[in-house]
Amino acid sequence: MDLFSVLMILGLVCLALLPFAVPGLLEVLLSLAVSALLVAGALYLGWLPDQLWLSLLSLAVLAVITTLLLWKPLRRLQHSGERLQEDKGISDFVGTQLVLAGHTSKTQASELLFSGVHWQVKLDPDSSDTELVAGEQVVISSAQVGLLLVKKING
Q1: pLDDT tens digits for 48-101?
Q2: Please, what's the b/e burial string for 71-109 (b: 16 or more CB within 10 A of its CB; e: otherwise)?
Q3: Is the pTM of this model over 0.85?
Q4: N or C, where is the chain less crowded by C-beta within 10 Å?
Q5: Nearest to 88 by CA among 146, 138, 148, 145
Q6: CA–CA separation, 134 vs 4, rounded Å?
């Protein structure tokens, strides 16, 4: 298999894994995918000689550059309070009532053991409350892998 094909496959596999990536790994996978596809394109167009060491060096340099360029915008998007698509396997948790184990707010997460898993718990960005204390009754308003957004139960 030639170098062009290997880089194309690497780029496409990284793109295919993006929906399953956790924050932190998402930026790295995306930059690796973009870099692999760019280097493959440069090889295809003849802008880069078909040499392994030069291709790997180009891939590494481009991956670092694209990671630095993409890191902050993607982190800002992830923490903007916008709802990301919920995982269908855990979206059944929405509406479940819990008792908070620790203090939490919109910016400060606490941890909670729920359904045999340790979850990060944050106050829902749409909530009118600014913080919740340990022992308060809450309801899960959104569930994502590793993160539960909660609101105080009114009444």
Answers
A1: 999 999 999 999 999 999 988 887 887 776 655 545 445 555 567 888 899 998
A2: eeebeeeeeeeeeeebeeebeebeeeebebeeebebeeb
A3: no
A4: C
A5: 145
A6: 56
Instruction: Give yes or no for a contact between 61 and 99, defined as CB atoms under 8 angstroms apart.
Output: no
How far is 48 from 58, CA to CA, in rounded Å?
A: 9
Nearest to 12 by CA among 33, 31, 35: 33
Residue 22 has pLDDT above 80, yes or no: no
- Say if residues 83 and 94 touch (Cβ distance below 8 Å): no
Instruction: Compute the distance between CA of residue 75 and CA of residue 23 in angstroms, rounded to an integer.
Output: 8
Q: Are strands 104-105 and 147-152 parallel, antiparallel or unpaired?
A: unpaired
Q: Using an 8 Å Cβ cutoff, are 86 and 144 in contact? A: yes
Q: By three-state DSSP, how is residue 53 classified?
A: helix
With beta carbons less than 8 A apart as the criterion, state whether 37 and 11 touch: yes
